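In the previous lecture we treated proteins in isolation. Real proteins rarely work alone, and many bind small molecules. This record shows how such a complex is specified: first the sequence, then the SMILES for magnesium ion.
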Amino acid sequence: MPQSAPVATPPAQLAIFTDFDGTLVELAETPDSIDVPDTLAEQLGQTARELNLAFAVLTGREIADIDRFLAPLVLPVAGAHGTQRRRADGVLEAIDPDSLEGAERVAEALGPLIAAYPELILETKRGAVAVHFRQAPELEATVHEAMQRAIEINDHFVLVPGKMVCEARPRGVSKGEALRAFMLEEPFVGRTPVFIGDDVTDEDAFIAAQDLGGVGIKLGDGDTAARMRIADVGSVRALLQGLGDIAAREQELVVTERETIEPEQELAH
Ligand SMILES: [Mg+2]
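The predicted 3D structure, ligand included, written as tokens:
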């Protein structure tokens, strides 16, 4: 019985997006005390190159923070949950002035709370505000109530709870919207998005990646819209290394197939 020839299909080209804290690095007592391994920037740079630079970080932190931790590597980044965005071509998008001004007012309104509880950490960002309570978990409800009052100043902000943190971010802004924006641009457009994250604020991006035909990968336990899970930070870094390697190998494979198939086709005619 004649066997049909295998049909060569182009490999899926991935666009990989990852959260930072709790996904690429372990969480720490305070946002500034995270341990960033010396090898992280080099490894992520290699992964980015193997993905033809279709690799971006979607974080609650400011873009400047990520640049500081990964120097000299400069990646496409959505910061402050998408309030800030630097595209793959290096262009930094302007931050909405209402978000900038609104975040300052929310931070001001939280002054009395921070003064009353020194164990809380106020993180003011361009366009967003976070209060970290990892050093005083019993204050969770107090923090939520105070932040709810602070955002009632106007209708521009919503509260987003995270791991030992409560965030105020502009309405309509999210990691999911940031992922969708990247996917309209080179070198992401036309690729299959993968997003890896560990927290509640990553859910929008899991959904966005899956809406666009890709996959969300949730690190650790907890309810999630992500279709896949991964165990820990070490596994994420190993996966990124592996995915990058596969992308590079598949590019080589395509070249090899073209070189070998074309002469056969010429002979057949
Ligand atoms: Mg995280």
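Summary for your notes: The chain has eight helices and eleven strands. The domain at 14-94+173-259 is CATH 3.40.50.1000 (Rossmann fold).
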